[in-house]
Amino acid sequence: MIGVVIIGSGIAGLACARTLAAFGFAPVVLDKGRGIGGRVATRRVDAMQFDHGAQYVTAQNSSFATLLSELETDGALAKWPGEGDRPRYVGRPGMSALAKAFGVGLDIRQGVQVKGITKTDDGWALQLGDSVLKARRVVLTVPAPQVAGLIGADHQLVADLAPVRLASCLTLMAAVTGPVPFTRRLDQDDPLTWIALDNSKPNRPQGPELWVAQASHDFSERHLEQDALGIANAMLPLLCDRLGVTAERVTYAAAHRWRYARVTQALDQLFLTSADGTLHLGGDWCIGPRVEAAWQSGTAIANDILARL
């Protein structure tokens, strides 16, 4: 039987596992995807790459600020110069480098789909297709709307999640030859809320201009159920307009759908736990729409587990 199984290899899950490992424990992290980091992600296509999820990381918490500074010293992060009082850190050579740095030395098993978990006399049983994995403790760091599918809609913790709200976000990745009117732009009133020249970040491939555009909540909701090609076709004319170029200048375009991207209503506590302390729920949705929030939630869960042992 495994002592602690963490479902989800986003920043919350990695922070939890990293903290437990630092105290000599050997948690197992399960994730259904091929990569770790959740929305701290980088898409690579031939010689191109795009940070199509989180664009950068900042720190308000002193411990997290120290961690980011250490990762910069180690070469995993670099500062992306810009406005604001707090440094904006980006992964080197892509945002996924942050997750990879968090995951060093951890037992992370990718491509593992957990169908559900049930309570047993001595812990939990995780249904993995035709097999069952047993654990004394389970940590769920999946998006809040996915929790009910794992523990059952009638579980008390699902009711506790009722206030949480997450919004979708559509992302366009495009290679464009032509002028560069800006390197990044934030406009909450525009259907393309965020536009950034991805290779303006440090240690990025040079060559054609690689742009990332992220849509507003309203635009994302209207186009959410379109396929990737349909989303790209809806967003690309808007990007061309903002850049002042024609479609002929576009040499590559693709879209990605983040169904649970932005925390619009947080739980306002670091995590949830079952009455017996063997099941924890956490993620950025606990305290706010920041990478740092996911790290704080995962770290707090690990500390709670350690305090119970």
TrEMBL record:
<dbReference type="Pfam" id="PF13450">
    <property type="entry name" value="NAD_binding_8"/>
</dbReference>
<dbReference type="GO" id="GO:0016491">
    <property type="term" value="F:oxidoreductase activity"/>
</dbReference>
<dbReference type="Pfam" id="PF01593">
    <property type="entry name" value="Amino_oxidase"/>
</dbReference>
<dbReference type="InterPro" id="IPR036188">
    <property type="entry name" value="FAD/NAD-bd_sf"/>
</dbReference>
<feature type="domain" description="Amine oxidase">
    <location>
        <begin position="86"/>
        <end position="306"/>
    </location>
</feature>
<dbReference type="InterPro" id="IPR002937">
    <property type="entry name" value="Amino_oxidase"/>
</dbReference>
<protein>
    <recommendedName>
        <fullName>Amine oxidase domain-containing protein</fullName>
    </recommendedName>
</protein>
